[in-house]
Design brief:
Oligomer: single chain
CATH superfamily: MFS general substrate transporter like domains
CATH class: Mainly Alpha
Number of strands: 0
Number of domains: 1
Radius of gyration: 19 Å
Mean pLDDT: 87
Number of helices: 15
């Protein structure tokens, strides 16, 4: 089995579960009696746990020489945690289990991304055409979830999550046992020195701000559309449409990276976010929402492909899992950890107008990307 196929199956397995969790997990949390503010706090706690967990797992993957073992452990922990959610009620229990499962599941992705990024830099695969299978899986899962949830109790969400997260165990088993770019003899200091540069910190600012701008959408997008009168099936189609636009760019995006460069793509993706969130703040018109959801290609695929290629060109391959884990921790923990509870408060007070704050974050991300471009131009030998 080729490396490209193994990585494609990993992304497909991972994003099948994400395709249920992102649109519908807040609905399941609400069914257990949590308020909008409590949901925001529960999701934020999980993001902060990632700050500690994700860099540790990324470092272990780099130093162990066997990333698959680390990924298998994380996948098993995630399955066990979601099974434990079956009898769980109350804020404390749900917050604890959500933190465990979300952190374990999220830590899988940067390690898998490190394998895919390294293979891309070595010319073995096209990252976008491998990653696109994750997006396709997300679409399938979202449409399936919307269909199954329509008219049913919210516990169907948890049942689907358990089954789909379990698939990650199988997809991780198919990954190679080791990767030639890993270097177990590297010391922690020698690994971090080439990473924590002004360029990398500016890169983190750009990616973190843009990711955080999705907080209202991820936590309350489905709830907001429900409040505006959309059915669960219609909501699923809106999510799926955005993911389909993302898939198109992932498949063809390598040409854009070659033509424009990674950092300009990051800036363009962030700018599209400012437009997208402004539209979502003011309208419940189906036609405008369909157009706005096309910009998901910008905030996820355009910016994301730019970010992956930027790291591939600037970070030593032996520290790729660590760098991606640090980025994931900053994005998921610091970005969502700070913004998610604020998003809950804003949505509780202002409804869809909370998206305006997300538009500001996207615009700030575009500015950070432009600063990064200037730093690149000032130090071309390090870019």
């Amino acid at each position: 089995m080729s490396l490209a196929l193994r990585l494609s199956l990993f992304y497909a397995g991972y994003f099948l579960s994400v395709g249920i969790l992102l649109p519908f997990w807040p609905i399941w949390l609400a069914s257990r009696g949590l308020s909008a503010g409590e949901i925001g706090v529960v999701l934020a706690i999980a993001q902060w746990v990632k700050v500690a967990a994700t860099p540790v797992t990324g470092g272990l993957a780099d130093h162990s020489g066997d990333p698959r073992r680390v990924m298998l452990v994380l996948a098993v922990i995630a399955v066990a945690g979601y099974v434990a959610c079956i009898p769980a009620h109350g804020f404390a229990a749900l917050a604890t289990l959500n933190a465990l499962t979300a952190a374990s599941l999220a830590a899988l992705l940067p390690v898998g991304d490190s394998l895919a990024t390294t293979a891309t830099q070595q010319g073995h695969i096209d990252f976008g055409r491998v990653r696109v299978w994750g997006t396709i899986a997300f679409i399938v899962a979202t449409l399936l979830g919307g269909h199954m949830l329509n008219g049913r109790a919210a516990d169907i969400v948890l049942e689907l999550v358990i089954v789909l997260v379990a698939l990650n165990v199988g997809s991780c088993l198919l990954l190679p046992r080791s990767a030639t770019h890993l270097a177990p003899d590297l010391s922690l200091d020698s690994g971090w020195r080439p990473i924590l540069t002004p360029q990398f910190l500016t890169f983190l600012a750009a990616t973190t701000l843009l990711a955080a701008s999705h907080s209202v959408y991820y936590a309350f997008g489905s709830l907001n559309w429900r409040a505006q009168g959309f059915s669960d099936a219609a909501i699923a189609w809106l999510w799926a449409e955005g993911a389909a636009a993302e898939a198109v760019f992932f498949y063809w995006g390598a040409k854009a990276v070659t033509r424009y460069g990674p950092v300009p793509l990051m800036a363009a993706g962030a700018a599209s976010g400012a437009v997208r969130w402004t539209v979502l703040a003011f309208t419940a018109d189906w036609r405008l929402l369909v157009l706005a959801q096309l910009l998901h290609a910008g905030t996820i695929a355009v910016a994301g492909l730019g970010a992956i290629h930027y790291l591939g060109r600037t970070i030593p391959l032996a520290r790729m899992a660590t760098a991606l884990a640090i980025n994931a921790a900053a994005v998921g923990g610091i970005g969502y950890g700070i913004v998610m509870p604020l998003a809950g408060a804003l949505y509780g007070a202002y409804g869809s107008l909370a998206y305006l704050a997300m538009a500001v974050l996207s615009a700030a991300s575009a500015v950070a990307a432009m600063v990064l471009k200037r730093l690149q131009e000032a130090a071309p030998t390090n870019s």
